[in-house]
Design goal:
The protein is α/β, with parallel strands linked by helices. It folds into 2 domains: about 160 residues, 3-Layer(aba) Sandwich (D-Maltodextrin-Binding Protein, domain 2); about 120 residues, D-Maltodextrin-Binding Protein, domain 2 (3-Layer(aba) Sandwich). Helix content is about 45%, strand content about 20%. The chain is built from 12 helices and 10 strands. Helix 2 packs across helix 10 and helix 4 packs parallel to helix 12.
Amino acid sequence: MAQRRTLLLAGVALAAPRIARAQAAWPTRPVSIVTGYAPGGLTDLTARAIAERMQRDLGQTIIVDPKPGGATALSATHVAQARPDGYTLLMGATSLAINPALQPSLTPRDPRRELLPIGMAYTSPFVLHVHPGLPVRTTAELIAYAKAHPGELNFGSSGTGAVNHLCLEMFRREAGIDVVHVPYRGGAPALIDLRQGRIQGMFAAVLEALPAVREGNTRAIAISSRERLPLMADVPAVAETLPDYDGVFWQGLFAPIGTPAPIVERLATVLRIATEDPVLRARLAEQGVSLQTGDAAYLADLLERETVTWGRLIRESNIRPE
């Protein structure tokens, strides 16, 4: 037994330098960043822009690999179960904080313990906009009108449990109003009905809302983030009326649990450089995207806080997927 233990220890000692050399040489081939959204959308294009900037400093190609499905659970599970060697990463989103309460049967059941945070990537708020036939121009006026007409206003979303739906639910609770939620299969059909007055309002992604607002087909009331959006600087934040309100879509970079610390640290460094790049920041700001620099601890704390916040809202509002 003693001889066997000695041989095992000797094997570990011999292997350690090889492992260290492999980690130091990483990456020696392309790296894959998996996303949970279909190609061509804002999330996909933003992930590609960040990946393109990261690969300059990483010295290897980064391939963005869309794997939509299961409310992004397919992509998250794929990465959680991947080999922890730094070659398969996840551009994880707000859904990581939503799914455990909304759809607890989906995997990973607890992303906080099944994925390793690397760093923050970006946030993107929503525009609260209404049909111009609604006689309101401010958040306070909208709240007052909704209170005077309980249950008469219909607000759309891109689907039950989507981030913009939860932003609506948060607004409804904090404002103390009664409005009807109308879920759609995506933001585009909801926006069509808003333009035509079939619904009276919605929280929409900036790039979806902006053309309708500029054309006068809808009226921007507020921005869902705590701060105003530079792209629409004249539109107040909801928080200027409801101080505790803050709801955005975010994404951050994750790796499988067990990924070696030197690899994680290098990824965190190139991600930080990308999110601080002034040219990239300016280009994405034109699309309503705010690059956010934040280390692993920042991303872990964000995921923890939002899992608690959205989970409580989902349970107390009895939100169920359709």
